[in-house]
Every structure is written in structure tokens, then in C-alpha cells.
């Protein structure tokens, strides 16, 4: 019972209320839910992608730093095994002369190659197990024994971290020497590095507008930072514990100004930690702004759609309410009411049907005594109208079906020429019944013309058809239906047949110009006299009263009796489309400067150019020349 009661209440609602509920329920609510889910997921995705990008960035930075220290270690290999170094390590402090001699040899022969091109080395020291040491560059001011005590027995190469040589910050690297004969520690190489390579690595990384990158050594001291005042400072123990807890990760740190996303990566080579700090608002600022813009645009579109649909439903229901009031008045006997007939949609048709119904009722009341006679007369007139319509029109489908039947018989009997000609003729009929002012592409026009050539080649076996167009350009060239075939027919009729010449050549050459696309129709028959060509030039230029062009359209043709005269001479041009007709149709659809130009006409042949517009301009590889070429066989 409750369901039936609810159904009755819903059925009693007005159409406007139902449409509003449906629009909000089926359009507004799903879009709102989808937008909310999209907002949440896009925010999560943007933040995740930004974190992954920054994590990969500091991972690569750590890789660059490890590669730098590995290269530095490899550069010490030649020193470890060099005979001069081995001799220096075995010297006694009392061998003063040998000590000076070997030091000099090391400085002159060995160290220049090691220092060549290296601006990152601040100082260089060699210390033997006998306590002998030699210093180069700025080395020597850091107490060597203090550094050597930090090197474990099983370590041969260690990065000690940041130290101060006076007021100069340096990073010290220790390399242990081995006595290749006694297999014990022979001494050490101590290399002091300036901050240039570390500053260069950090400066190449951009993290938002205010984000920064820092390098922390294994002791928890800051090696590199955008603020030089922090170099050598130790970070808080609780923060260092988090950074040492795992190889890489991230956490959020709140400051007075902003909430920072801290991401870190610890090197497995020396324990150094690469740390990036970026404000969360800058992490994916542009992407978030784009997301917000998209959300606002989507919301505005939804509101706009709801308003449009609401206005449309209101307009629709008001029209129905008006019709409902008129029907109520007609129901009460007021039969002179009329519904508005300005609309052409379903409501308009309903209004017209209502008006017809009211008028019919009024007519029946007024002429009830002659209703049967009127009905019979109306039926008779309807039948006569149908008969006249059937007699005055030829159903194109009848022609197509007839040609298809002929084609079927030809195929069954194996007479392929008849089959080909009927198929081509059917295609010609199908294309010709369209609107002559309809805009098509040149590709469609030439496809239609190929059917025409199929028929002509059956008549003239020696005919050569030369089509040179770019098949990639044709879909972008605009044309009008049936503008090329009349010009080709003129070439057959007035270039060849009128002069009792067998058609031998028809050419269609396409070319891209700055002002459009030119299709040239070329034949090798007899042309028109110069004065007639001049008259047509004036006619096509828009001056039909200047001379010969107008009179040729009225009484003659370009080559004697061209179909161009059909526009003003129906008896002579019935069933043909003249040159002026083609030119006028092109101008009517596309305007100036498009149309026909008789480029050349004489004893050696005629060339007629058709200038057509582009829909678009593809790349001009060859300017549209050289597409396909057709050559017919010889006359049998």
C-alpha cells in the first residue's frame, strides 16, 4: 500500500517538477560525487608524483656524490703502486739526502699528473709509517695523527667529513698504503677537498621556489647548505636519529612559516645523507593550481548545464501548460482558440495538430450536411495528387536497381565491359542527383570523374588519361558537385569530336598555389579562336558586357557550340552544364577569386584552370604534383 501511495504521489507531480528532480538527481548529484572523488584522487596523485620525483632527484644526487668519491679513489691507485711512493714509504727519518731527493722527484714527476685539471683539491699530504710526511698545496695545517686515529684497521679509504683548516672548510679523504712486500700498512695519503664540487652538485638542484638541498656527513655535520653559516654545524640528535633510521624516506616538519616535506637518502658508500626540504604548498604548486582551475571550470560548466536544462524544461512545460489551458477552453465549447504555430519541434507539431483538430471540429459543425461529400472529394484529390507525384518524378532507386539488374546479367554472361559500364553509369547517376550547390571535396569530385572515364575508355580504347594530383592534398580541397565533368565533356565534344578527331589525351594536373589549389584540365584537340577566348576571359573576370564573352554564352560556345550556351539557350544546351554555369556556381559558393580561367587554347590543345579553396594546408612536399597516372589501352 505504501508503494502504491508513493507511486500515486509521484504520478501526480507536474512534468516540470519531475524534470527538475531528474536533472538534479541524474546530472548534478553524479557530477558532484565524481568531482569530489576526482579532487581527492588527483590531490593524492599529485602529491605522490611530486614526492617520487623529489626522492628520485636526491637519489640521483647521492649517486653523483658517490661517483665523485669513487673517481677520487680510483685516481689514487697509480700513486699507491708507484715506485717513488714505495721508496718514500720505506725511508728512515735519518736518510735526509734520499728524503729530499725522493720528495723532489715526487713533486716533479708524479704530482703534476695527479693535480692536472683538478681544482677541487685544497691540499695533499703523504705520511709514511715511519712518521715521515710531505705536504703539497695548502695541506699540513690539519694534524695528521688526529685523522689517522679515526681510520679503522680494515678500512683502506675513508671520507672523514667536514673540517676547518683555519677558517676554510675542507672535506678530508684518507687513503691507506700497503707495503706490497711486507703486506702491512706502509703509510697514508691525505687529500683535503674544497667545497667547490659539493656546491656545484647542490646548486644544480632546484626544489620549488624556496626549497633547498643539504649534505650531511656521517658524523651528523652539515657539509653543504645554501646558507654557508650552517657549514660544519651539527643537526639535532632527534632529527639525525630519524635520518639514520633507514636508507631513504620522508617526513613532515613544521616551521614557523610553513610545513616542510623533508626527504632524505643515505649513501651506502660513506654514510653521507642527502636531505631536501620543500614547502608542501610548493611541492606541486602549478599542478594543484591547474587542478583547481579545472575544478572551477567543471563546476561552472555543470552549473551552466543545469541552468540551461532548467530553463529548457521550464520553457517546455510552459508550452504544455499553455496547450493544456487551450484544450480546456476548447473542451468547454470555445472552438475559436488557436495555439501558437511558430515552433517547429514536437510541441509545434502538437500545437498545429491541435489547431487542425479544432478547425476540423468547427468545420464539421458548420457543414455537417455535406461531410460525406467533402470526405469523398478529399480522398479523390489525395489519390490524384499521389498519381501526379508518381508520374512527375522518377525514382532514382528504380534506375539504380535497373542498372544493377543489367550488371548482374552481364556478370553472369561474362560480358565484363557491360558490367563495368553499368556500374560506372550507376555511380554517375548516384552522384548527379545531389544538390548542385552542395560543397564537396575535390577527392569526391575526381572519384566521380573516374566513373566517367571508365565509360569513355570503353568508347575510345586509345584514350590516355593522365591524372597528376597528390592524394593527400585532395581531401583538403573544397569543390562544388559536378564542376570538372562539364569541362572534360567540352574537351571530348568540342576539342575532338567536333573536328572529327579521335580523343587521345585528357590530363588533370593539380598544383598548390598561394591563393588556393589549381586543377588544370588539359586536352590535345583543337582550341577556340583567340577572340572567343578573350570574350570568355572578360566574362569570367566579371565583365560580361565588355565584348565577346556574353554573346558566346547566348548564342555560341567556346569551340563552336559549347554547353556554356545552355544558360541562355535551352534548346541548344539542354541537359548540359556550361562553363559559365560552372564558374557562377563556384563563385556563388566560395566567392572571389575562385572560378574558371581558360589558360591556353589553340591548335595544339586547350588548358582550363579551376581555382578552388583549401580547408587546410598540409606540408608542401612536391606542391601536390605527381599522384596517380592512368593510361588506357589501344583501340581494339
From TrEMBL:
Region entry Disordered, spans: 545-576
GO cellular component, one term: plasma membrane
GO MF term list: phosphorelay sensor kinase activity
Chief site of localization: membrane
Residues covered by the HAMP domain: 314-366
Topology of the protein relative to the lipid bilayer: Multi-pass membrane protein
PROSITE patterns on file: HAMP
Compartments, as annotated in UniProt: Cell membrane
Name assigned to this protein: Histidine kinase
Organism: Paenibacillus oceani
Amino acid at each position: 500500500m505504501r508503494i502504491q501511495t508513493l507511486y500515486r504521489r509521484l504520478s501526480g507531480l507536474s512534468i516540470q517538477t519531475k524534470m527538475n528532480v531528474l536533472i538534479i538527481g541524474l546530472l548534478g548529484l553524479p557530477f558532484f560525487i565524481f568531482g569530489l572523488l576526482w579532487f581527492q584522487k588527483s590531490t593524492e596523485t599529485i602529491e605522490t608524483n611530486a614526492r617520487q620525483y623529489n626522492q628520485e632527484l636526491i637519489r640521483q644526487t647521492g649517486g653523483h656524490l658517490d661517483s665523485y668519491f669513487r673517481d677520487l679513489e680510483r685516481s689514487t691507485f697509480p700513486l699507491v703502486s708507484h715506485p717513488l711512493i714505495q721508496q718514500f714509504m720505506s725511508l728512515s727519518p735519518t736518510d735526509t739526502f734520499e728524503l729530499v731527493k725522493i720528495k723532489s722527484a715526487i713533486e716533479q714527476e708524479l704530482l703534476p699528473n695527479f693535480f692536472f685539471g683538478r681544482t677541487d683539491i685544497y691540499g695533499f699530504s703523504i705520511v709514511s709509517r715511519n712518521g715521515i710526511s710531505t705536504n703539497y698545496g695548502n695541506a699540513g695545517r690539519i694534524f695528521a695523527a688526529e685523522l689517522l686515529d679515526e681510520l679503522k684497521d680494515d678500512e683502506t679509504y675513508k671520507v672523514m667529513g667536514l673540517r676547518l683548516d683555519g677558517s676554510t672548510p675542507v672535506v678530508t679523504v684518507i687513503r691507506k698504503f700497503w707495503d706490497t712486500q711486507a703486506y702491512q700498512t706502509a703509510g697514508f695519503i691525505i687529500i683535503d677537498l674544497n667545497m667547490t664540487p659539493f656546491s656545484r652538485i647542490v646548486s644544480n638542484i632546484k626544489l620549488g621556489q624556496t626549497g633547498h638541498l643539504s649534505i650531511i656527513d656521517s658524523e651528523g655535520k652539515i657539509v653543504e647548505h645554501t646558507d654557508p653559516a650552517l657549514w660544519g654545524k651539527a643537526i639535532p640528535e632527534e632529527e639525525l636519529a630519524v635520518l639514520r633510521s633507514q636508507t631513504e624516506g620522508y617526513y613532515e616538519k613544521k616551521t614557523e612559516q610553513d610545513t616542510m616535506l623533508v626527504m632524505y637518502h643515505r649513501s651506502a658508500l660513506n654514510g653521507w645523507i642527502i636531505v631536501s626540504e620543500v614547502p608542501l604548498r610548493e611541492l606541486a604548486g602549478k599542478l594543484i593550481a591547474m587542478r583547481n582551475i579545472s575544478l572551477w571550470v567543471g563546476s561552472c560548466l555543470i552549473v551552466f548545464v543545469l541552468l540551461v536544462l532548467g530553463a529548457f524544461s521550464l520553457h517546455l512545460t510552459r508550452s504544455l501548460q499553455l496547450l493544456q489551458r487551450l484544450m480546456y477552453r476548447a473542451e468547454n465549447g470555445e472552438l475559436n482558440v488557436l495555439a501558437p504555430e511558430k515552433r517547429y519541434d514536437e510541441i509545434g507539431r502538437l500545437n498545429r495538430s491541435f489547431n487542425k483538430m479544432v478547425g476540423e471540429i468547427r468545420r464539421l459543425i458548420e457543414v455537417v450536411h455535406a461531410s460525406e461529400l467533402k470526405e469523398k472529394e478529399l480522398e479523390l484529390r489525395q489519390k490524384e495528387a499521389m498519381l501526379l507525384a508518381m508520374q512527375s518524378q522518377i525514382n532514382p532507386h528504380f534506375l539504380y536497381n535497373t542498372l544493377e539488374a543489367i550488371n548482374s546479367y552481364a556478370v553472369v554472361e561474362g560480358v565484363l565491359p557491360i558490367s563495368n559500364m553499368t556500374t560506372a553509369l550507376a555511380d554517375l547517376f548516384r552522384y548527379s542527383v545531389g544538390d548542385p550547390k552542395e560543397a564537396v571535396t575535390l577527392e569526391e569530385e575526381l572519384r566521380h570523374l573516374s566513373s566517367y572515364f571508365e565509360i569513355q575508355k570503353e568508347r575510345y580504347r586509345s584514350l590516355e588519361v593522365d591524372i597528376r594530383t597528390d592524394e593527400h592534398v585532395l581531401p583538403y580541397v573544397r569543390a562544388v558537385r559536378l564542376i570538372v565533368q562539364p569541362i572534360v565533356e567540352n574537351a571530348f565534344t568540342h576539342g575532338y569530336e567536333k573536328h572529327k578527331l579521335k580523343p587521345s589525351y585528357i590530363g588533370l594536373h593539380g598544383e598548390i598555389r598561394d591563393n588556393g589549389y589549381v586543377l588544370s584540365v588539359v586536352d590535345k584537340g583543337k582550341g577556340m579562336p583567340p577572340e572567343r577566348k578573350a570574350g570568355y576571359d572578360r566574362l569570367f573576370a566579371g565583365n560580361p558586357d565588355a565584348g565577346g564573352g556574353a554573346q558566346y554564352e547566348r548564342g555560341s560556345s567556346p569551340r563552336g557550340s559549347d554547353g556554356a550556351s545552355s544558360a541562355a539557350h535551352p534548346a541548344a544546351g539542354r541537359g548540359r552544364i556550361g562553363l559559365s554555369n560552372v564558374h557562377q556556381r563556384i563563385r556563388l559558393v566560395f566567392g572571389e577569386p575562385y572560378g574558371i580561367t581558360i589558360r591556353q587554347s589553340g591548335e595544339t590543345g586547350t588548358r582550363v584552370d579551376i581555382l578552388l579553396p583549401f580547408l587546410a594546408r598540409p606540408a608542401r612536399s612536391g606542391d601536390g604534383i605527381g599522384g596517380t597516372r592512368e593510361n588506357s589501352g589501344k583501340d581494339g
